Amino acid sequence: MDRVYEIPEESNVDPTSSLEEDVIRGSNPRFTFPFGILFSTFLYCGEAASALYMVRIYRKNSETYWMAYTFSFFMFSSIMVQLTLIFVHRDLAKDKPLSLFMHLILLGPVIRCLEAMIKYLTLWKKEGQEEPYVSLTRKKMLINGEEVLIEWEVGHSIRTLAMHRNAYKRMSQIQAFLGSVPQLTYQLYVTLISAEVPLGRVVLMVFSLISVTYGATLCNMLAIQIKYDEYKIRLGPLEVLCITIWRTLEITSRLMILVLFSATLKLKAVPFLSLNFLIILFEPWVKFWRSGAQMPSNIEKNFSRVGTMVVLISITVLYAGINFSCWSALQLKLADRDLVDKGQNWGHMGLHYSVRLVENVIMVLVFKFFGVKVLLNYCHSLIALQLIIAYLISIGFMLLFFQYLHPLRSLFTHNVVDYLHCVCCRQHPEGRAENSQPSSETEAMQSII
C-alpha cells in the first residue's frame, strides 16, 4: 500500500498518567517515494496509447463499429479522469492555465505526476529542515475501552504530496471502472467473435486488466481508510497479496462470463445487462427517496445545488460501474455528508455475492446450452465449470481476508499488547529481564500509528 509517510527511529513520548486524557506526541513524519503516482500514470498512458493504436488499426481495416466503440470508451474514461483530478485539486478556483491546458488535451495525469515528482525532490533536498507551516494530525487508539490520542506535526509540503496521492487513487478507480472495464469487456468480445488476437489488442487488454485489478484493490484499501479514518492502519504485503488474488479472480471470471453470455445471445443480452446495471444505478437513489432525507449541501462549499447534483450523479455512476463487475467494498449513502455508510455491512456484502453468483450461474448455463456457434473447438462444459470455480475461489480469498488478514483484527489486539508492554516497562523498569534489551518507544509508536 502506498503510504504517505513513516515514523522515524526517534520519538518523543511523554509520560502518561491518565491514558484517556493525555495526548502521546509522536515525532515528525517522514515522506516516501510516490510509487503509486508513477504506476497510475504509467497505466493511464499505456492504456491510452494502446487504445489509440487499436483505433488506427480498426480504421485502416475499415472496421467502423469496433473503432467507434474503442475510441468512445477511451474518450469517456479520459475525460472523467481529467475532471477527477481538477475536482480533487480544486483547480477551477486557482490560476493554473498550464495545468488546465494539459487537462484539456487529456495529459493532466502527466503534468500532475511531474508536479508530484518535483514536490518529492524538493522535500528530499530539504530533509531534516523544519517547515514554517505545519499542522497537527491526530489518530486514536482503544486500550481496554479507553481512547488514547496520538499527535504529530505534518508539514504543508507533505500534505500537498499526500493530496496528489489521494487524487491519483481516485483517478485510478475512475479509469478502472468507467474505462478499463468496458474496454476490456469489449475487446474480449471482439476477440471472441473475430477468432483473431493481434498484438495491439493483447497489449490493450493487458493494460486494461491490470488497471481494473489495481482499481479494485484500491477500493478495499480506501474503504478501510474511510471506515477507520480515526485510526492509522497499514496493510502488509500478505494482506495486499490476498486482496489482489481475490480481486483478479473475481473480475476476470465475471468479465469472461459476461463476454461469453453476450457472444451467445448477442443483441438479446442487451436488455438483461442494461436492467442489471440500472438496478445497481438507481438503488442508492431509491433508498435516499424512501428515507425522506434532505440532499446533502455541504459536499463542497463552492458548489451550487446543480454542481452538487452533478457530483452525486457521477459518484452513483462510478458506484454502479464498480458493483457491476465486482464488490465496491462500500455502500453508497446519499443522505450522509461523507456519502458512504461507514458501518460493516455484512448483509450488503452477502447479498451482493449471492446475487452475483446466481447471475453468473445463469449466464454460464445459457452459454453452455445455447453457445454452440461461439466456441466450436472447446468444451463448453469445461469452460463453464472453470469460470464458476474461479469465482468461488475468489469468494474464498475474500472470506480468508476478512477472517484472518483484516487489519481490524490486529488493531485492538496486537498493537494494544505492544503498547501496554512499552508503558509498563517505562513505569516499572525493575520488571524487565536482566538480559533483555530496553524496549524501544518507537516500536510501540509504530505499532499504533
Description:
The protein is mainly alpha-helical. It has one domain. Helix content is 66%, strand content 7%. It has a 3-stranded mixed sheet with strand order 2-5-4. β6 and β7 form a beta hairpin. α1 runs antiparallel to α6 and α5 packs parallel to α7. The chain is globular and about 70 Å long.
Domains counted in the coordinates: how many? 1
Terminal Cα span: 15 Å
SS elements, strand count:
7
Rough outline: globular
Biased composition (Polar residues): 434-449
Organism: Galemys pyrenaicus
GO cellular component, one term: plasma membrane
Membrane topology: Multi-pass membrane protein
In short:
With about 450 residues, the protein is mainly alpha-helical.
List the helices and strands and how they pair.
Layout (H helix, E strand, L loop, with lengths): L4 E2 L16 E3 L4 E2 L3 H26 L3 H26 L7 H8 L3 H18 L8 E10 L2 E10 H39 L4 H29 L9 H29 L3 H23 L13 H21 L5 E2 L7 E2 L4 H25 L9 H26 L1 H5 L2 H14 L13 H8 L1
Parallel strand pairs: 2-5
Antiparallel strand pairs: 1-3, 4-5, 6-7
For this entry, give a set of tags:
449 residues; mainly alpha; three-stranded mixed beta sheet; two-stranded antiparallel ribbon; 14 helices; globular; disordered C terminus
